[in-house]
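re: ur msg from earlier - yeah i can do the pyridoxal-5'-phosphate complex, just paste it... oh wait u already did. ok heres what im feeding in:
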Amino acid sequence: MSDGKNLSVEEKRELLKKLMKEKAAKAASSPAPAAVSSNATEDKSIYTQFDKFPEVQTLAAQFQTLQMLHVDNPYFRVNEGIVNDKTRINGRELISFSSYNYIGLSGDPRVTQAAKDAAEKYGTSVSASRIATGERPIHRELEQEIASLLGVEDAIVLVSGHATNVTVIGHLMRAGKDLILYDALSHNSIIEGCVLSGARRIAFPHENWEELDRILTEIRGDYERVLIVIEGVYSMDGDIANLPKFIEIKKKHHALLMVDEAHSMGVIGPHGLGIRDYYGIDGNEVDLWMATFSKSFASCGGYIAGKKILIDYLKYNTPGFVYSVGISPANAGAALAAAKIMKAEPWRALKCQENAKLFLKLAKEKGLNTGPSKDSAVIPVITGNSAHALILADALFKDGINVQPILYPAVPDNEARLRFFITSDHTEDEIIYTINKVAEHLNRIRKDMADVTFPKSMIG
Ligand SMILES: Cc1ncc(COP(=O)(O)O)c(C=O)c1O
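and the outut:
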């Protein structure tokens, strides 16, 4: 076969077309799956009836459990305005601990105005992938601002935080050659990205860098690329990763390190600039900085920041970027304004940290189990029983406090909890009132309802 060197332009074009066709055909087909049912004669119509799907039946059982426990459904409650330290639900004002508006920038008039200005100038959609005709000046302004916040060369901005993890991890890591090691408490978007990639994936025990080191010492040699994925602040427990240790390990084993800063950027560190700021680390020590715009950035979207060569590559190749529309002008405008305010007004992060410290101190004084949360704005109160968490959240709601219960199967039943997101807007009075109410109700529930649990069939 010709190596293509002596072909005419026409012949080269034809060859290229043929190769592209073959590649598309390969991508479009997949091998037949192994048979999943030995019963080829069964009535297959059940597979078209959603009420027969076991997972749909599980959801129905969960609704029944709510009724059995006499609590209102805590999900999909309609918040009728901006949510900061307060919210309005069914016309009633409540103290809110349920939003990621950590530094109060969603609802800040400057951020709102920036979203309006961007929509007015560039429209409500960029109506195309950025690689085609979707590129607008505000995209690059935002990416450069993000890169400057992290002290790295460049950044790429995508339409969703979740999709950022899925598509970037899914694309960079390869089946049959590469290895991903991710913290066992990683967010769903990280795990989905690992699965999509097809690379070998191993969850190392939460924050256990010694175990990570051990695994790498044993098997690093069997793989080409190795990616370690951790989070700045863990979203269920509110603890902060030991970043210096993970940097040491990634260097020792020639691995790439990715840090998801969804809950740390804008919140922790002496300037509120995330885990890099918290430890005083050079931005170039981490290969992929990731965060979402849905939390401190008061918008919607996600970013990866790092070396220019990586960012350029991702911009021309990542499926979730190339085959998806560019972030909307309003979202880019809001995130850009928030990034600038985040840098100019570190007092917001410091106030959020101070509020979290007070919350944690008072909770501990009352004997509440707040897990390993420290120096972050995520504070769990672990009830150790899903039914107790639900009943507690319901009682607090009636007392004017909105906080989300986290139940089995999102966490093991014995780690069921209420998860409090602290913001810079919370007042001392709101925090004192809340802790008193949590302690009062939880003591009562534990005393009077010690034997109330989720049905055994539901918690496995
Ligand atoms: C750690 C982490 N990563 C990624 C995401 C996804 O971000 P988004 O909700 O903005 O899509 C979240 C969302 O809560 C998260 O907690």
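cool cool. The chain is about 45% helix and 15% strand. ping me if u need the other ligands too
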